[in-house]
């Protein structure tokens, strides 16, 4: 494996020659984790329409930055089927995964009363809604002991197997297979208010058993949050101590774990998916610095996980201001011209304190502050939606270029090296080229 660049490269003031791609290089990206089937990309927020469907605009903006392949995450029966419809509507551009997210795993519980085909991701309510209308209280985790419905488990796994097998069939002789990975599935102990640890462990183990039995196997699209020990233990139980029975590999997406955890996952042959959540703290960025380029994949996880100004990694997006050119020397003027200039200036000055304050406010309004990090596309609030603009707070696949730039800045390598490594890794595992 290639080794990571030393941490001396974590200086955000590296020269542009080091961090920027070659002048004639056109970046290319595959977003390995985009929740494009979420109704928010159709203009629906929490079950209510706020603006016209702009999904095609989202895909167009992604293409404009070089993100030509989108792997849409399936995290429940409904979202997996919706993602599959998208993949078949945009063949060769959109691909999909299918699985049951740990936060959607309450369908395995004895206390779950809805049919698993109707249950959606992370506690959604309305039938057409993936984004939660409200979140359960994080301070009230669901306790273990609620029981597992083993009869229902057999039906769920059987139905999931049927979904996966049908999704692997091409929709036409010319179209590529839409489904490229099994998942998203795994463990999330940070969000036990969605599903208890007991049920999550059962869900993960049952799906691992199914994934191991598929012929041919699919790559795994994995989720691990604050659950590393159990996560690795169950993977090894299903695929061997070195994951030697895992035929197609897998990626642990949206990684926010420790350096030691990341190294163990890479040692098992897994890939590491990086998005905006991977840059929140200095410790997160230290982890990114140690990811080997031949184990790196890029993602946005939109509509969530955007890079924010509060994130430690944001500084790698900030362009150093160019030094202003020296002002030309002021030409000498005669006494008469100088007196005239002074008199003219005096006439322009506000006459009293109130006028001075008004003038100051006027000047502030006219001097609109330039954003610290320029936006490639116009950004508007959803209430002021306009065609061609991004929606504020709704992360899109076109922002993947920011992920690549931050990774390059942290590691002290060029954007081209990051893009090409991530592209090669993704094509190798998911076969989407």
From TrEMBL:
PANTHER family: DEOXYRIBONUCLEASE TATDN1, TATD FAMILY DEOXYRIBONUCLEASE. SUPFAM superfamilies: Metallo-dependent hydrolases. Keywords: Hydrolase, Metal-binding, Nuclease. Residues 347-360 have a biased composition (Low complexity). GO terms for molecular function: 3'-5'-DNA exonuclease activity; metal ion binding. This is Endodeoxyribonuclease-like protein. Residues 1-22, 108-145, 341-376 are annotated as: Disordered. GO terms for cellular component: cytosol. Belongs to the metallo-dependent hydrolases superfamily. TatD-type hydrolase family. It comes from the Eukaryota. Residues 1-18 have a biased composition (Polar residues).
